[in-house]
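Let's inspect a concrete specimen:
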Amino acid sequence: MTNNDEKLNFENVLKTLENKGSSFVIATVIRTMSSTAAKPGMKAIISNKGEILSGWLGGGCVTNAVRNTALETLNLKKPKLVVLSPDDIKEDLDELKSNQTFHKKNYCPSEGSMDIFVEPFYPKSELIVYGNTPIANELVKFGEKYSFNVVHVRNFQDDNNNNLNEFSEKFIVIATQGNSDLIAITESLKIKATYIGLVASKKKYQALKKKITDEGVSQEKLKDIICPAGIFINAIMPEEVALSIFAEIIELKRSGKIGSKKF
């Protein structure tokens, strides 16, 4: 197989994974010392099952270390540096003290050393908006502008959950505002989401919680719902309220927590 064929195969696998909306990892050799089979610039695509789908990194000791690290980076959502080297080199590398690196002894007779950067990739985040209200419509615009896959649930006649990607990070906003609130809350709790925000006052949510728990939903599950949704920016107009909610989603997406002032 020529280099052009290998490159084409790599790009085809990458395109297929992206079209399917699958999560995956790209491992890239960035440094080698002494004798190693793989050279800097060599890459491999690793599936979310730990399978090498395209590319090559070297022998079994290399691929096993990278495959295990690939699954770890997908779970932690952080890249990692894999360092393969003899033990005597390990003591000279200060960066190995960081939890962002994984060191494994190279048992190959060549006693070569390799650094491999392992980076996870995910499908687009999904913004699921319940409601056919001005705030809901503005949130849809924000989601589309900032490259979220948007699922807008205007009514509950259709099975909208079939449109969701199994591997994507999901952010839900319930902006029904009096029209099918209970159904929207119940449906949202069926989805494994990073964020569930409800557009309502705290007083209204207390009343809704009582009705939902009377129907058998546990208080524990309702703790996942953030109400009122959004951070405090003195918002009044629908587009301003939508902005405050979307800002809260971005803060959570980027930092893993909501630290801005709430209502």
